[in-house]
Design goal:
The protein is α/β, with parallel strands linked by helices. The protein has 4 helices and 6 strands; from the N terminus they run E-E-H-H-E-E-H-E-H-E. The strands form 2 sheets. Strands 1-6-5 form a 3-stranded parallel beta sheet, covered by helices on one side.
């Protein structure tokens, strides 16, 4: 499986599963994180509740995926791939996030996942490190990943 690239807003994708990444403080710093917050405000409110509630008995951890479902039956995966907005991305945690998304796609009988071009501070250096991980993790179940470039 090779990643397909397209221009545009990944939140407008017609696919049922959308994946984006957050830090464990759920502090949106990248444009795609802010876009999700704006586009799916009603659906995303559980993320804030989960992240706030996680200060208690069941804290969220790097590699966790917070799933939300919109009224239009889109499944949105917020994968936690770093501790804070200043920390480095944990690539092993990212791999676990991808595996969780693959399992969900298979359970929903979906063969496509949409996501934004994942960056830190708009740098493509990180993307060059993670796109092989994405291709590897989605190749076995043969799920097509469509990356939307703003």
């Amino acid at each position: 499986m090779k990643i397909l690239y397209t221009l545009g807003n990944f939140t407008n994708a017609g696919n049922q599963i959308l994946l984006y990444t957050i830090n464990n403080q759920n502090k949106p710093v990248e444009d795609y994180q802010k876009l999700v917050d704006n586009c799916f405000a009603n659906s995303i409110s559980p993320v804030q509740q989960i992240m706030e509630g996680s200060k208690g008995a069941n804290p969220t951890m790097i590699s966790d995926v917070v799933w939300m479902q919109t009224s239009g039956s889109k499944h949105i995966a917020a994968g936690i791939w770093q501790e804070s907005s200043e920390s480095i991305v944990d690539k092993d945690a990212f791999r676990l996030v991808l595996r969780s998304v693959c399992k969900k796609a298979m359970s929903l009988d979906q063969d496509k996942v949409s996501m934004p071009l994942l960056t830190i501070n708009h740098s493509l250096d990180l993307w060059n490190e993670i796109y092989p991980i994405i291709e590897e993790e989605f190749s076995i179940p043969d799920i097509q990943v469509i990356v939307h470039i703003p």
